[in-house]
Specification:
This protein is α+β, with helices and mostly antiparallel strands.
Length: about 220
């Protein structure tokens, strides 16, 4: 992981929902008041995790990260993923990952904006109302993540391996607005996400392709019936 002082990155900061409702000319000063810094990560790096609590709010602005949970025996399951424009950690719940045995793991190069909303703000008075707007935007982002987790529970409520796989692929198809789409997981990660054995997943995918229900090439899928 590396840090930089400026929030200027490839993804336009002005397009982030984190800053929605804040005048464009005020955004840079608001970020300065929050002592915002950009942190960069490589594939496999932990953005937040079991090893330590969170002393800042970390907002994903580039890349994706998996939400990985470990049981008492060390077995891994994937609860979901974060995409850019989402809260991945907050100082308002500093022990969340520690208490729930979670790691937030980068799937590739990632960047975050790190800042604190709980510290005493020493900035121009006009920034205070905008910082309150950021707090509201953070709540909206967390609410959206909760809705995604509810959708995941709907998928896992299916009993058979085929029902789980189909429910997941149909959800991804709807999100993409197309019957042809990519998924963010390799086979082991998809098995961990659906709580099934990788071998059972591979067999079911092969059956479904032979039956003309789906077609796929690695993480590229199409619903064909």
């Amino acid at each position: 992981m590396s840090d930089t002082d400026s929030p200027t990155i490839d993804t336009p900061v002005d397009e982030l929902s984190l800053l929605e409702g804040i005048p464009a000319e005020k955004r840079a000063s608001v970020l300065r008041c929050l002592n915002a810094r950009v942190a960069r990560f490589e594939k496999g790096d932990i953005l937040a995790g079991r090893a330590h609590g969170t002393s800042c709010t970390r907002y994903l602005i580039e890349g994706e990260a998996l939400i990985v949970r470990y049981d008492a025996a060390g077995n891994r399951s994937i609860l979901g993923s974060y995409r850019e424009d989402a809260v991945v950690a907050s100082e308002l719940a500093p022990q969340f990952c520690v208490a729930n045995c979670l790691d937030i793991v980068a799937t590739g190069p990632c960047a975050t904006i790190d800042f604190s909303i709980s510290q005493e703000i020493e900035g121009c008075p006009c920034c205070i109302k905008h910082i309150n707007r950021i707090k509201g935007n953070l709540v909206a982002s967390l609410t959206d993540m909760n809705m995604q987790l509810v959708k995941r529970l709907d998928t896992l409520a299916n009993r058979s391996t085929r029902e789980k796989v189909l429910a997941y692929l149909q959800e991804r198809s709807q999100e993409a607005g197309s019957r042809t789409f990519s998924i963010p997981y390799n086979r082991q990660e998809l098995a961990d996400y659906l709580y099934i054995e990788r071998s059972a997943l591979s067999r079911e995918l092969s059956r479904m392709q032979r039956e003309g229900i789906i077609s796929y090439d690695r993480n590229r899928f199409a619903l064909t019936s």
